Amino acid sequence: MSGQTGVQTEESYEAVIGLEVHVELSTQSKMFCGCRNEFGAQPNTLVCPVCLGMPGTLPVVNRRAVEFLCKTGLALGCTVAARSKFDRKNYFYPDMPKNYQISQYDMPLTTGGAVQLPSGRLVRLNRIHLEEDTGKNIHAGASMAASDHTLIDYNRAGVPLMEIVTEPDLSTPEQAEEYLGQLKIVLSYLGVSDVKMHEGSLRCDANVSIRLTGETRLGTKAEVKNMNSFRSVVRALHFEIERQQAAVRNGERIVQETRNWDETRGVTYSTRSKEQAHDYRYFPDPDLVPLTIEPSTIERWRLEMPELPLAKRARFVRDLGLSDYEAGILTEERSTADFFEAVAAAAKEPKQAANWMLGDVRRCLEKHSLTLASSPMKPQQLADLILSVTSGKVSGKVAKEICEVVVAEGADPLAVIEQRGLAQVTDAGAIKQIVADVLARNGDSVASYKSGKVKALEFLVGQVMKASRGKANIEIVRAMLLEQLG
Amino acid sequence: MADVPIDIEYVSRLARIELSTEEARRFSSQFSRLFEFIAELQALDVSQIDATAQVIPLRNVLRDDVVTLCLSREAALENAPDTEGPYFKTPRILD
Amino acid sequence: MKTGHEIADAIASKRLSALEAAEAALANAQSLEGELHAYIRLTPERARAQARAIDARLKQGERLGPLAGVPVAVKDIFCVSGEITTAGSKILENFRAPYSATVVRKLDEAGAVIIGKTNMDEFAMGSSCENSAFFKTRNPWDTTRVPGGSSGGSASTVGAGTVPIGLGTDTGGSIREPAAFCNIVGVKPTYGRVSRYGMIAFASSLDQAGPMTADVRDAAQTLAVIAGHDPMDSTSVDVPVDDYVSALRSDLRGTRVGIVTEFEEQIGRSDPALAALYKAAYADLQRLGAQLVDVALPHARYGLATYYLIAPAECSSNLARYDGARYGLRVEGDGDVYSMFERTRAAGFGDEVKRRIILGTYALSAGYYDAYYVRAQKIRTLIKRDFDEAFARCDVIACPAVSCPAFELGAKTQDPVAMYLMDYFTIPMSLAGVPALSVPAGYVSGLPVGLQIVAPAFEESRMLGVAHAYEQATRHAWAQTPRVAQRAGSAS
């Protein structure tokens, strides 16, 4: 497209992208043994004979991992299999204690399903299956190539992993990012994973190919791995699509291979083709027995599921009168949505609750480098703050000031108002007196106003507020001034 | 003697066992008689038969999601041929 | 041969202390080791500690279980916490197990005193104990002959009378064949009856742990202790454990005993003395009141090929973990991890193990999986059906356990298939998952052979009941004494 000399640029290409996302499930224990499932522990302290693949050990399936995966499937419109089983995927690698991975091959727990992207595209899912995670290789030295040995931590070996595979329905890197975003929201809503890409609980591999626009057959795909953030995914996919386009325009064939994304250099590079690695010799794991899932179990899981993001978003708009934009942001995380609803219910003011949360609360959180989760503020406290404004107890300005200490320290707004004597003065008599005093002292402003200068009124309002040390109810002040000025 | 269809060099690489040429040749000829027996299996009609992956009719053997005692790191590393600090250590990985 | 129940009685009634029993067994084992080489490792400290603890509890007046203080030996395939556990292989020659197998824990809890880990064919692959990476165990009846395998060490030491009870494993006959060769009782339970947790895996869908004992009563007692559901083993079945000892019978009235047509043809083709011995055994069953019924196992003849596709396939995967990374032997390669794997496994595995891994890898590989592994599993279904149909017409099956008595060391090592044929009569039961045992049935040229009794799944009571009646009526095991035991004067 950039006009290379001598090369036809008539054709335009479209990209075809399929994503394989691995999600670490947030069960208490590992997939096949009772070791704690926890990120960031000291190396090799969350291991046992089973997950170390010691002689004589046997796996036993964690029922909650099965439940988490099936609930994910239900949330994404998948079909939960009536019969499912585990298979061994055989290959040698130092981070694999048994040199086979217990996974699922031809009878995954769910098939079908789809993810709706906010921009409109529907991304169909092929399957979701359950498997165990591997340990972690740490390469001594600057890179894998430079080190002469490998250090291995098996804490992660055996952690339950859910693999979500899409059909090749994505066509731009931005859609891929949207897809990941939607997945992240749904999974955190279900509470099945903490979906932190930077901690590895959400990992993404992509299958990328290009074809002439309008062509229906798929081109040769390359698998892209090692993208460690949403941003990496977008950058890597852009690079790979351009690489393939340039290659094809140059008359080269695309090789089916695995390519790693190099974040520093900003390129994908081919990893040596591992022909042999593809003969995984899948066979049903004889140490495990098949799963049969009754319709009644599926029903029970369905009933146990929380309200999902899109449904909650629609409800906020429909029943609480929020705008779609407001609802969208508030439902991005379940904890935020839950907090918001608690505030809205306690204050009976959903719109106000939304305004505060999206405005001043967000600002205060950012200022103090807090999140809603890490802030000590409780929903009732924000509700009290809102009510103190709507009831006229304090002015909006004062409430904004209190907000910070409520958010940062979890202070009780009513107590703060009391302690600092911030309550608005609404006593008409007191205000009348102050108004009279101010008018008396500011004759030229009065004259100015009477001669048509509206601004003078604001000056007088300011003077009254100053005289009352900001505590007078501003509406009452204005009304009284107008009354007294005639 | 039956033909032994195994590409022993390829298979031994899959199985990550270094075999000498002599071993490969010897094993190949030793498999020959066994493959005569195996060839008899091909004659049976099993088209209507389900494979028995397991002789026991168990289904849904699951454990509750509870944490149980792990090994101490010392115990985990005790048998390791090579370690470095808290890690297992192996020669480097060449892709 | 003193039985476990006799020793247990003596200990319970204070005629013998557990420590005395343990010391006697250890001393006997030591004195016979030069000839038998039955033990990879004796565990005297552990044994003494255990025995002392039993004696202390007895002194307190505690009433202990039926195995309390009885010295036992376990095949070195069972992990015993804190002890080196090798599975008969160089690749694990320095592996110290950090946990105990469930069956070991059960024996410990029952008060049995483990005196050592017995020799075996490497990773349970073999029928003679000649595939052990360490040394070859001898048959106590004739030390120029094999004790059978893969549980050869346990068979030899129990056969010699050193201990009344040994633990073995049976995948295609590895308890029954050596039991037959060494004149003892050997039981392969129903698949799923006994936990496999802590038992180093060979072929997951076939392996079972079982007792190898001086008599049927000891086998019944031991099975009662080790059987039962284990939450650590997904393939262990949650079916109540019968009181096997109370099921032991003295006659066989009302019992239909199936005689397998195909097997009788097969044994008829071997040594006539052996064929006659088995005929006499069936006649003995009849004399006890059993009704003999002809049954057919038409697909049993495919057992060998079926087994030698399924077992190697599973073992090729089960043994992949032995790579020198986390435990066991490591042999450095060319500086990268894959060549380390390849050299380690080349050095650490013996020929038979390598052969089976190659065969199994091939049977699972792309393009061959359906033709070999899946087909074998389908034929397995046919073999299982044969047994179901046979058991519709009989209560137990009686057949040979072996096609010959113990052969000489080296006699069958040239041709692996000659060795595989040793399991001809035992493989079909393993494929079908049904329980089967071998009980001493007499002697051919002075060498013992065993009669196999087979029952439907989870009918160990029935099987042990029949075996007991036969054993008590014929008492073959007590007719002669093994040469080794005679020389050592240790038949106690």
Features of the shown structure:
heterotrimer; A: 486 residues; alpha+beta; Arc Repressor Mutant, subunit A; 3 domains; ten-stranded mixed beta sheet; three-stranded antiparallel beta sheet; 18 strands; 40% helix; disordered N terminus; C: 492 residues; alpha/beta; Amidase signature (AS) enzymes; eleven-stranded mixed beta sheet; 17 helices; 11 strands; 13% strand; globular; disordered C terminus
How far is it from the N-terminal to the C-terminal residue of chain A, by CA?
A: 73 Å
Please give the radius of gyration of chain B in angstroms. 23 Å
Tell me about the biggest sheet of chain B? 2 strands, antiparallel
Low-confidence stretches of chain B are none
Quick summary of this structure?
With 486 residues, chain A is α+β, with helices and mostly antiparallel strands. Chain A has helices at residues 63-75, 173-190, 230-249, 295-304, 309-320, 324-330, 334-347, 350-367, 379-390, 396-409, 413-420, 428-441, 443-450, 455-467, 474-485, and strands at 13-24, 61-62, 79-80, 83-84, 87-90, 100-103, 110-111, 114-116, 122-132, 136-139, 149-153, 160-166, 202-212, 222-227, 258-262, 267-270, 283-284, 291-292. Chain B has 95 residues and is α+β, with helices and mostly antiparallel strands.
Describe this structure in words.
The complex is a heterotrimer of chains A (486), B (95) and C (492). In chain A, 40% of the residues lie in helices and 18% in strands. With 486 residues, chain A is an alpha+beta fold. Chain A has three domains: 17-208 and 274-295, no CATH class; 307-420, no CATH class; 428-485, Arc Repressor Mutant, subunit A (Orthogonal Bundle), CATH 1.10.10. In chain A, helix 9 packs antiparallel against helix 10. Chain A is elongated and about 95 Å long. Chain B is α+β, with helices and mostly antiparallel strands. Chain B has a domain at 1-44: Histone, subunit A (Orthogonal Bundle). In chain B, strand 2 (83-84) and strand 3 form a beta hairpin. Chain B is flat. Chain B starts with 7 loop residues before the first helix and ends with a strand. The mean pLDDT of chain B is 91. Chain C is α/β, with parallel strands linked by helices. Chain C has a domain at 4-245 and 479-488: Amidase signature (AS) domain (Amidase signature (AS) enzymes). Chain C contains 17 helices and eleven strands. In chain C, helix 2 (18-36) packs antiparallel against helix 3, helix 5 runs parallel beside helix 6 and helix 7 packs antiparallel against helix 16 (460-474). Residues 488-492 of chain C have low confidence and may be disordered. Chains in contact: A-B, A-C, B-C. At the B-C interface, helix 1, helix 2 and strand 3 of B face helix 10, helix 11, helix 12, helix 13 and helix 14 of C. Strand 2 (61-62) of chain A pairs parallel with strand 1 (62-63) of chain B.
